[in-house]
Amino acid sequence: MSSVDVRQIIIDIISDIAPDEDTTDLKDSVSLREQLDLDSMDFLDIVMELRKRHKVEVPQEDYPKLATLESCVSYLTPKFG
Amino acid sequence: MDDSRRIVMTGIGLTAPNGNNLREFRSALLEGKSGVKHADIRYMGKQVAGLCDFDEFKYQSKKLRRRGTRAGSISIYCANEAVVDSGLDWSQVDKSRVGVFLGITEHGNVETENEIYDMHQNNLDWKLWSPHHNPRTVANSPAGEVTLNLNITGPHFTLGSACAGGNVGIIQGVKEILLGEVDLALVGGVSESPQTFGIFAAFAAQGALAHHEDPTKASRPLDKNRNGIAISEGGCVYVLERLSDAKKRGAKIYAEIVGYAVNSDASDFVNPNNERQVQCMHLAMKKAGLTENDIDLVNMHATGTGAGDISESKAVRDAFKNSSKTYVNFTKGHIGHCMGAAGSLELAGNLPSFDDGVIHPGINVSELDPDCEIPRLVINHPLKLPEVNIILNNSFGMLGINSALIVKKYKE
Asked: Max alpha carbon distance in chain A (Å)?
């Protein structure tokens, strides 16, 4: 799966978890929490949805790697294969 | 009595299967408009159910709605509507002196069923169990969601009291104000029960789940051909405050709460006990300093089950055998059984009779069960009286919990 696809997967999940947020112009290198009203429970939801929808597991020690869209893509793309 | 010891209702917010505010709800009750429809219930398919169509996002963000529960959503809608209706300037209210006390029949079934269903759909992967499950299912959840939404820092809890919940929530608010714990109380009851298949399946197993090809005719308390309960959701929240405070701010006063009682059957898990029901009504009247002849209207709990309706009909006949003026109605023919919300919603439906003297009828009674005959029973057609001044509102529940609440038209 391409990095562009993985980026879209993350945005789709965020849009479902935080439907009040505008996700159209997210900056890839800026922390998601700086751009969106997300808290720690939302990140748990992201992890949960990755597992449920795509069978991708994110161990707890790797949660910091979901901080930005850029870090999400670089961490998750190899997992999507 | 000192005005600071008299508790009044000064705001109402509600959602019922046939209306999303008191005006719509009352109109539907007078027009005989049912809110019971067919719904697709997980595993069971088409069943009758009363579902509400209020705007979930009027007072809550989509994200927090997703995080919370249907019961929380109903509670937030009703609480906000009640506050708006009360005319309180919410920005000026001391939130540490506000309490939230909501009756519930049950809570947590919906989320638990959903999680297990999801897990089952995903090869029993327990790691998919939601981190939101615990905050969603703790028993205080619906009341807690109201405090989060309205920034209330006073006490909050739900009162698990089966289908007596709507009355019990109100009664708790009265006590909290009289104890000096709070100055304002948001009280009532809520139900999300149709969102869980288990409640349908259990009533079906008991032979007590209503069914009819026309869903609007499925809930038919006191009718000879009734066949059970139409499970409904809903909510009704009142603003309660001291009469002295209400007068100070020139509030509209819907009613004064003058008596209440809660007792227990101590006889069966599900079957009612009409002796205890009579005692409960008598106790409420005694507390109010009233006799049977003072009560203008009794709203029956009347769920549409065989045993329940016969027991309560006998109880009402016995409790009011000395009255020559008490009329009797019921509300579940219109809305089904709103479970924890039933008591507070049904009371709201009758409150406008203080202004216009009109009693809404219990509907869907094609042939009155002879065992359910009660003097001055108002069925199928509204009744106009010269005036209605005092209402006794019954609400009973499983494990033998009975409640009776008495409200009076406010007069200077």
From this structure: 31
Paired with B300 in beta bridges are B330
Per-residue model confidence as pLDDT tens digits over B77-106: 999 999 999 999 999 999 999 999 999 999
Query: Comparing C-alpha atoms, which of B257, B351, B329 is closest to residue B25?
Result: B351
| Residue ranges of chain A whose CB lies within 8 Å of a chain B CB | 17-21, 37, 41-42, 44-45, 48, 51-52, 57
Return the number of other C-beta atoms located less than 10 Å from residue B58's C-beta: 11
Q: Which residues of B touch A17 (CB under 8 A)?
A: 63, 66
In this prediction, residues B179-195 reach a mean pLDDT of 98
Q: Where are the alpha helices (DSSP H) in A18-67?
A: 32-35, 40-54
For residue A16, give the H/E element and its range: helix A3-17
User: What does the pLDDT read at residue A81?
Assistant: 79
For residue B125, the chain A residues in CB contact (below 8 A) are 51
Nearest-CB residue to A18 (from B63, B122, B127): B63
Of A19, A44, A48, the CB nearest to B62: A19
pLDDT > 90? residue A61: yes
Give the active site residue among A12, A28, A39, A62.
A39
At B406 the three-state DSSP class reads: strand
- The DSSP secondary structure of B78-111, one letter per residue, reads HHHHHHHHHT--GGGS-GGGEEEEEEES--SHHH
- Name the residue among B6, B11, B188, B2 with its Cα closest to residue B93: B11
pLDDT at position B412 over 90: no
Q: What ipTM does this complex have?
A: 0.92
Q: How far apart are CA B325 and CA B392, in angstroms?
A: 13
Is A42 designated active site? no
Neighboring chain A residues of B127 at a CB cutoff of 8 Å: 51, 57
User: The whole model's pTM is what?
Assistant: 0.97
The answer to whether residue B225 scores a pLDDT higher than 90 is: yes
